[in-house]
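ligand=flavin-adenine dinucleotide
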Amino acid sequence: GSELLVAERAKSDIPVQKLHELLLTKEVIERKQRILAILKSEKVFDKSQNYFSGRMERFERALAREKKLQLLKRKHKWTLDEFRTASELVGEPGPYGLHESMFRITIAGQGTPEQQEKFGKAAEAYKIIGCYAQTELGHGSNVRGLETTATWNSQDKTFTIHSPHLTASKWWIGSLGRTANYACVMAQLIVEGKSYGPHPFIVQIRDMKTHEPLENVHVGDIGPKFGYNTMDNGFLLFNNVKVPHENMLARFSQVDPKTNKYVRHGSPSLIYGTLTWVRSTIVMQAGSVLARGVTIATRYCAIRRQFQDRDAPEWEKGENAVLNYTMVQIRLLPLLAATFALHFTGKGMMNLYQENQKRMNQTNTSRESNKRGAGPEETESGSDILADLHATSCGLKALSSTIAAEGLEVCRRACGGHGYSSFSGIGPWYSDYLPTTTWEGDNYMLTQQVARYLLKSARAVLKNPTPTNDTTRILSHFQSRVNIGCAFDILGSDEDIVAAFAWRASFLTFEALKHRDEQKKPWNDLLVDFYRLSKAHSQYLVIKNFYDVLRSGEIAQSTSPPLRTILLKLFQLFALHTLEQEGSEFYVSGACSKHQIMLARTSAVMNLLKEIRPHAVRLVDSWGFDDWVLDSSLGREDGKVYEDMFYRASELNPLNKVTVDPYPESEVLFKKVEGGYGKSKL
Amino acid sequence: GSELLVAERAKSDIPVQKLHELLLTKEVIERKQRILAILKSEKVFDKSQNYFSGRMERFERALAREKKLQLLKRKHKWTLDEFRTASELVGEPGPYGLHESMFRITIAGQGTPEQQEKFGKAAEAYKIIGCYAQTELGHGSNVRGLETTATWNSQDKTFTIHSPHLTASKWWIGSLGRTANYACVMAQLIVEGKSYGPHPFIVQIRDMKTHEPLENVHVGDIGPKFGYNTMDNGFLLFNNVKVPHENMLARFSQVDPKTNKYVRHGSPSLIYGTLTWVRSTIVMQAGSVLARGVTIATRYCAIRRQFQDRDAPEWEKGENAVLNYTMVQIRLLPLLAATFALHFTGKGMMNLYQENQKRMNQTNTSRESNKRGAGPEETESGSDILADLHATSCGLKALSSTIAAEGLEVCRRACGGHGYSSFSGIGPWYSDYLPTTTWEGDNYMLTQQVARYLLKSARAVLKNPTPTNDTTRILSHFQSRVNIGCAFDILGSDEDIVAAFAWRASFLTFEALKHRDEQKKPWNDLLVDFYRLSKAHSQYLVIKNFYDVLRSGEIAQSTSPPLRTILLKLFQLFALHTLEQEGSEFYVSGACSKHQIMLARTSAVMNLLKEIRPHAVRLVDSWGFDDWVLDSSLGREDGKVYEDMFYRASELNPLNKVTVDPYPESEVLFKKVEGGYGKSKL
Ligand SMILES: Cc1cc2nc3c(=O)[nH]c(=O)nc-3n(C[C@H](O)[C@H](O)[C@H](O)COP(=O)(O)OP(=O)(O)OC[C@H]3O[C@@H](n4cnc5c(N)ncnc54)[C@H](O)[C@@H]3O)c2cc1C
Ligand SMILES: Cc1cc2nc3c(=O)[nH]c(=O)nc-3n(C[C@H](O)[C@H](O)[C@H](O)COP(=O)(O)OP(=O)(O)OC[C@H]3O[C@@H](n4cnc5c(N)ncnc54)[C@H](O)[C@@H]3O)c2cc1C
């Protein structure tokens, strides 16, 4: 395969390194390389047995890796960014995962200075190792329905943490199963018989020395999963466990130990900021997550040859690289375009968020924290950018993680039979990524939040057409033109593509508003429409963001015209392919004519495939995945696919040490195991 | 959850047993129950460790199960049907799989009577255990590109089997990795320097006593996969291995040992019959494969409660079963309808095939075997039912396995977080099913065969409009009405729904014909259109078959009017939901108006969801999956979901025997393992 990839790379003049820098920045690239070198030199990170090991072995090795990462962090004095880079490069969930990402952050965000001093410091030093225990066996999305209680005892100034039913058992809690000795437990606060809703409590669950569960704590790992098996997601039941007053995280509310009254200090609107931030990172990650699969599949399909082209001239009758078949291209190249679209969209959102955050911090923090309510439903729509960002981040999280997850499976399948081997590297990666569609807001349910926001925005526009943010801008524009109609030149003008997506989203918004406000349809009857609406609006956002980036000064300065041309083609492919897939909505809304949609499909998209095809390998190269990171036979940078598959199968595969007795009459199963890797050691 | 499922069942009057019998027949139900009782009483089939074990352990247990099945088969004198039922109930691929399904069948189908006597008998007795070695590392779909050679040696009347390159290594071969001692090897036959294409050879590969590979045979397991890990898919390389003349399967062609000439005896058209049969079973199985996922998700979503309905009256403010949310219904209920649609379609095809086969065998076997060419491309289109069946079975295999595979993932995700647990039972099942989209013809590539057939049929119709089978019938009808147009009442008449699907498929056929024959577009440029065309035609076939069954005498006799009504609603839901998803094609073809598609979506489909919802649990009950078969906490018939999840996690999960040392400074990972399940035994 080597010479085939060399030839592919020779066919295109995309400046790989330039594009790589545009995607990641020089700084990040340098950081990655530096840290990768360190990781590669440590034996514990050797990946050669990853695909072969069972759960126990994988978990054990993951723990070893997490420990080593901590030691390396201390040794090299890694910054948080550097540490995160290292984790990302290791590329598997690890048993310290939730301690790092949620336990420490919750203490930092919701603890008082004293609590940060007490718990935060110990957590930073890995004296206490925590997890974030919100979800229960019976409740996930509906946090208000949690059953674990924390009852205030006014006599001894403690809280009793209790799980009244089996369904109150905490469940799915990352790092809890075997690793954590502390948990941040979300429990219904009960003071003098009255419930105040879920609040966070820091609870010790295992002995600091023996690591055995404390009395009245029943804790363990919840068992094997579709993926994520290097993580010990756990369960946790409390039988009336007492914790002191100081263990309720009290930055935003507490029980006054003197008066036994529940007191609020401002409102935790910052938490919604964090959520927005987390979701924006998911959007950006979706691009690179998908890019792994696209890299693997594109390289493999460029070296995989199968059949001759039926119409090829006699002198070209060699077998055809399957990437030349349009049916392979239509599966992979729009996904290649999507990697860039999602990456730039996530980046754009994060920039916007940070700018806005800065501005807010400078001017009027106090106003903000007083006026904003507890949840996103209560924010004033159409009036500020943060509300817009919050809602759009919900929709984009759902859309982008769906595109990435489903796209990975498309990539896997594009590799034919070999895609099914673990050595493809796509399947294991897909399995680990999949929960992203469910956590941080189930992708289907998030769409309700988006719809709610859009409905409010539409109502605001009907009252006052002056736009206050991008959402109200497009709604207002639509409203002013709806009776005139539109005529977008989607095949001739990129700007018109963006406008057509805006039009369709606006159309669906006002349709939904009619159903809800005029026809008074029940909320539940509209969920499917809301889902479509959210998808339409989020697709618009991706298209718009991608387009804005391509027109931006940064791109103009840092790219050559040929590179800009190909990026623009990727934009068009992503946009027109999406448009064509959702054809009937564009048609019904009047954003496009039947003829335009037909042309987009049969002509524009097919032409774009042809134009992008020669650059496919260089375009995936520009994502810059190291072979060590991809851990894929099919996706090797040097194209030595078959050699690598063969090596892994015949040299590394432990099953080949076994000689079986194949005859049904014999009770012997494994009659010989080389090197004594015997039955009991499975 | 128990009482919730009881209540669900009380809400509906679907006669579960009647419908169960309609689906499976009394005979099959009785057989299943009888065999299930036997399996349950054998300890080796106990499933409790399935989800926990690593590959080695699973493979070993799978081998034990396969052996036991053989012994039971002998003991109980099972028929082939009974044995297949047993395998299906065990529900996992096993190391004898390809011996049973392909090795023996190939000998029976392509061997001479002497070869059947020699190899077939030994195979039947499991003295020799075989596999079917066609695919190579470098070639799968393109069988003509295989690189393994079988060169005729005229001196000693033998063949030399050889793998000239690494890419010639057989790969993916089920049962080969560890189990088989023989292989049926497809190799390029070379006689006196001339190549005659791939032919089947019976080759011994392992010693009958020691089970060690024979000299010059390099064989082993190809390693872990996304699923199918209880099977030892293998690789196989030959270094000039000689086999005697009698080892080339010679029913259809052979090398005359006296003249050294290659001789054909008639043509292997029967093989295409077998392929058609195999694909028809895939279609029918797709229904029940999907039904497992739908059963699990429907039951779970009926007991899973989350949130209150926003519009519910005050007195109904309890939490809502998530199956009540329309956004859950729209994901599950069309799939529920699909289970019936696919089942009846597969059954219909198999009946048609059998009838036709019988008729052909009676009348003129000789004519048939002389006149038919070697491949489906060469059959005369529009002239007989077998050609139609062959082509339609390709399209239906692709459509149905795609619906089933992707539907399973939709079911899994509908279960929220718990769907990700192996205990859901959906994920592991999905992983094992997935290769069905790739083998027996890659789903994307099969669509080219369908398109080719449809183009030929269209050409035939243009020459002579008298229809000879259903495909030419609909094409001819379309052709006669195309200038007049159509006006189908898709929301009022079921027959018109079928007609609308026929119209759209015909429209796309003639469009494709125009592109190919008039505009002379290259084949490769049309692959995407062909894919759509095949999908459209196959959807028509499913709709038509489902509808025909519902109108048939059998249904009229064996079902009560209320049951017929609900089956009809399932038909409508499947049809209108599909139609709405493919809206733009229906619109563009003129089969429906914009308004109809809007109404189908916002009104008809939503109403059908409402009407079917109360019957959902009973409808899945009627598939009659035993809990032992489903092996799912979420899908339990009694609804005891949470108890079962908890039991499996806390009692069965081996990871909970381990106590870790959680601190980064300590090199100890597992500091205690209960019951001595120690590090070395992973
Ligand atoms: C690998 C993994 C790791 C996790 N780690 C953690 C962790 O560390 N800590 C933690 O606290 N949690 C964790 N979770 C839990 C996760 O946050 C929840 O699973 C997630 O929030 C979904 O909730 P649920 O499972 O209750 O789904 P449910 O809410 O039960 O959803 C079930 C189905 O109902 C639908 N549905 C529910 N309500 C509605 C509605 N109102 N309208 C329409 N449809 C509805 C959903 O779309 C879904 O299809 C983890 C989960 C996974 C899979
Ligand atoms: C679990 C499993 C078990 C198997 N068991 C066996 C077995 O027992 N015996 C055996 O012999 N084989 C077996 N196989 C192999 C299987 O039959 C092949 O993998 C299958 O035929 C696909 O071929 P391929 O892998 O070469 O795909 P390829 O042909 O290499 O396909 C790669 C990609 O190219 C596309 N493509 C290829 N050609 C074209 C074209 N002309 N036009 C458009 N697109 C094209 C495909 O759609 C696909 O996306 C098994 C495979 C699996 C996964």
